[in-house]
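Handout for the seminar on molecular recognition.
Each group receives one record of this type.
Step one: identify the two inputs.
Step two: read the structure output and locate the region that could contact iron/sulfur cluster.
Step three: write two sentences on what you found, then compare them with the reference statements printed after the record.
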Amino acid sequence: MKCKKCGKKAVANLRAYRISLCADCYVEFYKRLVERSIKKYKILSKEEQILLAVSGGKDSSAMASVLKEIGFEFEMLYIDLGIGDYSRDSKQKVEELSDLLKVRLNIVELKDYGFTIPQARGRVCSVCGTAKRYIMNRFARENGFDVVATGHTAEDIASFYLKNIAGNQQAFAEKLLPRIEPFDAKVVARARPLFEISEKENMLYAILKKLPFKSGECLYAPKPDWKEIVYDIELKKPGFVKNFVRGLTVEVKKPSETRYCSICGEIASGDICSFCKIRSKFSKSF
Ligand code: SF4
Ligand code: ZN
């Protein structure tokens, strides 16, 4: 198999694009893909202060590296969730990435808010999601960032969308756009620069660029049922995932009335925000 661009030995056969590429041409191809996507959907601008949420996994490592290559300036944020070896190893990878890219790394420890993820027993991922969203938004706003970028992939978005549509949860489905503008001064814009990039594409880029990343899932990761459905369709219909996420054109409705948490002052849907409700369960002095 030869590279379609330069004729050297190909390392990747990208079925969604019907093209085989060598290592150098693949790295360039990937960079162009992300750059085109960012321009087309106005996901990020070089004029804004960008905070990248990084987990230590392949997707966020690839995101940080490619954004640097494209010429974006940013800082990174790692949230230490306190999940034993997993958090320790992930933090180490993120620190290596920060050294490699020469990008400032900020670290927030969830334990400073009074609890860690393993204490959330039973509702671990739901508590974790609430905590990460809360900390990302608050850290970004309090430190003068305009936008928080996360490494969600096309498969993340397609599987999350299908799961929520199947459960008739359209309110969640709205959250899966390439960029969401803030509806209130307390909310920072959210961006997903890898919105139409697949996990395999990120993995290959991360390997070819020799980026530090942690392989292996968090021990609390749920069974990837919906993702497996997405992988199956992609296998039978190459290009499905990209076309699917490109077709998501839901409009994000502003809440009719914005409310603020009576404890921390952040956005809330009731009197107390979901994060403070969680914290109150873990801290008697709260
Ligand atoms: Fe958090 Fe669940 Fe992801 Fe682990 S799998 S990092 S607990 S959301
Ligand atoms: Zn609160």
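Reference statements: The longest helix spans residues 124-142. The chain is about 45% helix and 10% strand.
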